Structure formats: structure tokens, C-alpha cells
Give the backbone structure.
Amino acid sequence: LAKTTQPISMDSYEGQEVNITCSHNNIATNDYITWYQQFPSQGPRFIIQGYKTKVTNEVASLFIPADRKSSTLSLPRVSLSDTAVYYCLVGISGTYKYIFGTGTRLKVLA
Amino acid sequence: NAGVMQNPRHLVRRRGQEARLRCSPMKGHSHVYWYRQLPEEGLKFMVYLQKENIIDESGMPKERFSAEFPKEGPSILRIQQVVRGDSAAYFCASSPTGTSGYNEQFFGPGTRLTVL
């Protein structure tokens, strides 16, 4: 099973770029990397998903190096409303299970 | 297009009672997943269902917990004879397909179960 390791918490200031790195040393060939965001008392919300190199959408970018043993979620110019827990997940190839770790608690300060 | 619906949002039960949690997946989604989240922890997979079938219940406790997803109606997670340790947030997610790889799961708002 591909476990993930993320920093427990991070602080940032409004307007800064935030990069959260996730390690997944045992990622399998067909596994995708997915990031979710969770606000208190809410269900997780999909942010971005990728397989290799770089993926960008309207809210974030995901950088995946060639060896795929890590990935970095990049949030440009964060605001106070980006304060949340961010989970890095690896989809287990051939199944549908996501393993959620404890995530990274991002706190954005004014 | 309404998202994943869960009800009730909050449920209080006394020890020994039954808890029934309901989940209506997004329109067009036939794959449902249940997760449990304890305070300050990540979500733990419990069970994966398709219409009328349990595909994987490897994350479900062997006793007191059951799940169904009938042909008509919502998916139900049932907890019999609840104990204080069952207090948690229970999230339901749905997806249009069950394959791994590129598979976004859409989560509901959760049901917060409190056992007194």
C-alpha cells in the first residue's frame, strides 16, 4: 500500500505562495496522486489530480518529479479562506480505495 | 446538479441504540463509499458499494456495522448497539465509476454521530 507522508502543519501569510510536499515512496506504476481540501465540519473537496510532470487548474498546481516518489501542491497567493487541512492521496492501482493520512493543517495569517 | 446528500447532519444516540445514516449520491453516480473520521485524524475507508452490491467492506468493523445500497433509494450505513467509541463523523462519497487511477470521489457534508 502506498502510504503518504506530509508535514503536520504549515503557516503562511495572505498573498504568499504555499507549497505542500508529499512523499509516497511506494507509489505503483498506475497510481494517481490526488489532493483534497477539508474545512472544519465539512467533507473533503477535490483540488487536483495528476500522474506525472505538472498539472494546473484554476485553484492549484501539482508538480510530480520523474521518479514520482513525491509531489508538491502549490497554492498561489493564498487567502484566509484557504485555511484548511490538505490531504495527499495515492489511488491504489486496480482498486478504488483512498488512504487518507492526517493531512497538513495550513493556517493562513493576515 | 445537487451534490452528495447526507442526513441527518447530526445524530445523537444513547449507548445500545441503533444509528442509521443515509447517503444519496450525486445524480448519475452508482458507486458509493463510506468513510469514518475521528477528531484530528484523517478519513478511514469503511466500505464500497455499487447498486445492490457490497464490493469491499474490508474497513468495516466485523460486528454491529452494516451497509447497503438498494436499487432504489439512498445508501444506508447502520450501526447497531452503538457504543461511545462510535462517535465520529461519517462521510459518504460517490463517483461515476469505481476504477482507480483517475477517479474523483465527491464527498457529502458528513453525519456527526454522538453517542451518549
